Amino acid sequence: MIVYAVTGALLVALGLYGLIAARGLLRRVVAFNVVGSGVFLMFGALGWHEGRTDPVPQALIITGIVVALSASALAVGLVVAYARATGRQVLEDDAP
């Protein structure tokens, strides 16, 4: 199960890099989702004990996935509204 925990940590690191490096708002939303997926994967790997899984982390992961989906839909809606209102897909501070 260490492989899953390491993979989750790599996903978190990749997502954090995407949050810092990406200028586009949709890319930042996707990077945030990658961070969340890495956290879910690490949490699931840590819930594995001696050949069996603990049901509490599994329930929390499922709940987290539902919340992450809702938050992603809200974030994409806000990005679309911002793009329609300003005509840009990046924030003013990030514009070249």
Percent range for helical residues? over 70%
Give the overall silhouette. elongated
Q: What is the number of E strands? A: 2
Q: Which H/E pattern describes the elements?
A: HHEEH
**Protein structure class:** mainly alpha
Strand order of the largest sheet: 1-2
Uncertain spans, ≥5 residues at pLDDT below 50?
Answer: none
Would you tell me the overall average pLDDT? 92
Number of helices in the DSSP assignment: 3
What is Rg? 16 Å
CA-CA gap between termini: 44 Å
Beta strand %: under 5%
Largest sheet descriptor: 2 strands, antiparallel
Structure explained in plain terms:
This protein has a two-stranded antiparallel sheet. The model has no long low-confidence stretch (mean pLDDT 92). It contains three helices and two strands. The chain has 96 residues and is mainly alpha-helical. Strand 1 (48-49) and strand 2 (52-53) form a beta hairpin. Helix 1 (2-21) runs antiparallel to helix 2 (25-46) and helix 2 (25-46) runs antiparallel to helix 3. It has helices at residues 2-21, 25-46, 55-86; strands at residues 48-49, 52-53.
Secondary-structure blueprint:
Layout: H1 2-21, H2 25-46, E1 48-49, E2 52-53, H3 55-86
Antiparallel strand pairs: 1-2
Helix pairs in contact: 1-2, 2-3
Can you describe this structure in just a few lines?
With 96 residues, the protein is mainly alpha-helical. The chain is built from three helices and two strands; from the N terminus they run ααββα.
Quick tags:
mainly alpha; 2 strands; 4% strand; 96 residues
